[in-house]
Please model this.
Amino acid sequence: MRIIKIFIVALIIILLQSCSTKGNKSEKDENLLIKDEFIASIKTEKPVLSNREQELILSGKIECDPDKVVYYTPLISGIVERTYFSLGDKVKQGQALLDVRSADISAYQSDLISFEAEIEIAKRELESALALYDDKLLSERELLEAKSKLKQAQAAFEKAKSDMSLYLNKGNGVFAIKSPMTGYIVDKKVAPGAPISPEGNSLFVVADLNNVWINANVYAGNIKLVKVGMPVEITTLAYQNEIFTGKIDAISQVIDPEEKVLKARIVMSNKDLKFKPEMFVEVKLKNETNNNYLSIPTDALIFDNDSYFVVIEVSHGKFEIKEVESQGHYQKNSYISSGLSEIDNVVVKNQLLVYSELKGK
Model:
């Protein structure tokens, strides 16, 4: 009986050990399965040799083309009786903008009549001088003086006529001031009852907005990256889903004394009037160098302890960490100057998990 009991106990121990071995084997197989599934979720890419591209973002503002802007300053004194325009209105050349009561304009009108009469007198005198000159009764000098007198009278008349062309006589000493050009009112500084004079400020500003300037701010550290002719992309808060394209037409060589920046000018067509004067914009430009670098997705970079790292798949299921030196980023790519080769398989998906596992060993 004692032998039988010992045999039964031994058999039970063997069975328990067998079950334990099977459990460990099952657990080990399960761990291997999880590891293989994780490896299958990892994605790698090889670095690509390319020119480095760098995106630079500048702040800018919409301004009128200064060659197509008229600041109307009155040539006369008077009192404004009525205005016919508001800020932002479109006006046509010759359109009446405001009524002014002025004695000066009446004087201009009298001068115009006087100059016209002087022209007629000068013409008759010249005709007489020509006849006398043909009869040898007048010197060449006297003939030239008669011609000069006519030219002076005609010049004075044209000036008075030009001055009067901006005014429309409405009678009783009231004259309408007309728009000097077709465009939009971008500034208004006049109201009924206000006095005006040649020494005062401009009454209004008319601008042609078919083309506008975008002046982008270039700080000292970015001067070497900005060049004439570079393509740019322009975005605004007003049109968040639209990207406007242009190029840098000119760069100022003088630093703005107030903003301490250089101004890069971009001339933009504005036929649909989306760009408004004083509107702020964001200007993006791409700078491409002649140096070749290895390019990898920016998401593959791991920043740790003030350095950049990537995870490399050496072989199936085997990984290692490499420290790399970044030379900048553009859009979704980063440029690597050292630490990588073109044959490396860079982990671009789940690389943080692998990095953490390798760091923990």
Observations:
- The domain at 69-101+173-207 is CATH 2.40.50.100 (OB fold (Dihydrolipoamide Acetyltransferase, E2P)).
- Confidence is low (pLDDT under 50) at residues 2-11, 18-34.
- The first strand starts at residue 43 and ends at 45.
- The CA atoms of residues 129 and 142 lie 8 Å apart.
